[in-house]
């Protein structure tokens, strides 16, 4: 089964209501490949989610940037998976490296969040990736495998999971992974899934790349056999996000 190209825009903690409306207007006016070719999901901060959902074109979807690890209740400042479901927010990003690093989210905690969100009916963009130190010490695959294992230990149905491989050293730094570096890890991750989950999950689960993706580097990255799309930070706030969505076309000629 072909894996549909997936382009996510992670707006992180950015934007005013006016700026957010402007970004949505740009997206709404854009000519992009059809939904059969590319799945587009944008992730505004929580407070803008209902507004973005209400004004965004119907062929694009929204994602939250996080959700609580279990049922809501006395957890000040958190937003539960149930609330996202209630507002018909279909997707959630979990395990982003900024949360792992700055908010001390462990592999197990991220795994628990992924399992809980899936059980509530959300679709999950689950992020994994190594730091520069880990890459330089040769432990990239061990790190990424351990992060993925914590998810695999808790999840049996992978049909609503997209894995985002985001090397921490490439996020927000302008130092994009080379197409060969991205392909190598995506290929290894797919082999890990084949060995530890199933051949079917390995063949069908989308593994997208994130970290300094922009309008200039997206085509070559997207042309790699195991790169099934992108999770885009900085460039998702700019009109070049449209070019990144259009990179889905590279798979047609592949
Ligand atoms: P970046 O962020 O594109 O700004 O590097 C990617 C991400 O954090 O998802």
UniProtKB/TrEMBL annotation:
One of its GO terms (molecular function) is triose-phosphate isomerase activity. PROSITE patterns: TIM_1 (PS00171), TIM_2 (PS51440). GO terms for biological process: gluconeogenesis; glyceraldehyde-3-phosphate biosynthetic process; glycerol catabolic process; glycolytic process. Gene3D superfamilies: Aldolase class I. Keywords: Isomerase. One of its GO terms (cellular component) is cytosol. It comes from the Eukaryota. Pathway: Carbohydrate biosynthesis. InterPro entries: Aldolase_TIM, TIM_sf, TrioseP_Isoase_bac/euk, Triosephosphate_isomerase, Triosephosphate_isomerase_AS. PANTHER family: TRIOSEPHOSPHATE ISOMERASE (PTHR21139:SF35). Belongs to the triosephosphate isomerase family. Homodimer. This is Triosephosphate isomerase. It comes from Brassica campestris.
């Amino acid at each position: 089964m072909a894996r549909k190209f997936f382009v996510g825009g992670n707006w992180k903690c950015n934007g005013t209501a006016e700026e957010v409306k402007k970004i949505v207007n740009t997206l709404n006016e854009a000519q992009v490949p059809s939904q059969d070719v590319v799945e587009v999901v944008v992730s505004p901060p929580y407070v803008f989610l209902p507004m973005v959902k209400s004004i965004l074109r119907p062929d694009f979807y929204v994602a939250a940037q996080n959700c609580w690890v279990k049922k809501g209740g006395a957890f000040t400042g958190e937003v539960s998976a149930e609330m996202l479901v209630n507002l018909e927010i279909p997707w959630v990003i979990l395990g982003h490296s900024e949360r792992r690093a700055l908010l001390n989210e462990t592999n197990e905690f991220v795994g628990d969040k992924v399992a809980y969100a899936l059980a509530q009916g959300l679709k999950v963009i689950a992020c994994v990736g190594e730091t520069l130190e880990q890459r330089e010490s040769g432990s990239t695959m061990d790190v990424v495998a351990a992060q993925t294992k914590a998810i695999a230990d808790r999840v049996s149905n992978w049909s609503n999971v997209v894995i985002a491989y985001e090397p921490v050293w490439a996020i927000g730094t302008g130092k994009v992974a080379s197409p060969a570096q991205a392909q190598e890890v995506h290929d290894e991750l797919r082999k890990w899934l084949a060995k530890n989950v199933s051949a079917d999950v390995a063949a069908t689960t989308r593994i997208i790349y994130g970290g300094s993706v922009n309008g200039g580097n997206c085509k070559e990255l997207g042309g790699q056999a195991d790169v099934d799309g992108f999770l885009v930070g900085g460039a998702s706030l700019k009109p070049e996000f449209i070019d990144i969505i259009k990179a889905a076309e590279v798979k047609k000629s592949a």
